[in-house]
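Example for tutorial group B:
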């Protein structure tokens, strides 16, 4: 139940709100990790997908995204109305 236009920080990629679970989508996760890397190493690092740093950021974002998708699946299966399987 994420908001596609919401900005997420590295510390708030997922949270439980009164309306349910809110998680960031892959592009938002990648942007948050990119911003955190730039905060550490400076704004002049190359984060394009052709660079090693960009590949590392994409890999980390994909891992985090997959973990949040698992949490989202578990969360939805707690509710009998949305449970599957």
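The residue assignment follows.
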């Amino acid at each position: 139940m994420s908001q596609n236009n919401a900005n997420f920080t590295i510390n708030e990629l997922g949270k439980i709100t009164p309306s349910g679970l809110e998680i960031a989508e892959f592009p938002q996760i990648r942007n948050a990790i990119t911003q955190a890397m730039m905060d550490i190493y400076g704004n002049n690092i190359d984060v394009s997908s052709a660079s090693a740093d960009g590949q590392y950021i994409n890999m980390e974002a994909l891992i985090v995204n997959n973990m949040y998708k698992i949490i989202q699946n578990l969360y939805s299966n707690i509710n009998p109305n949305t449970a599957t399987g």
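The first strand starts at residue 14 and ends at 17. Compare this with the pattern of hydrophobic and polar residues in the output above.
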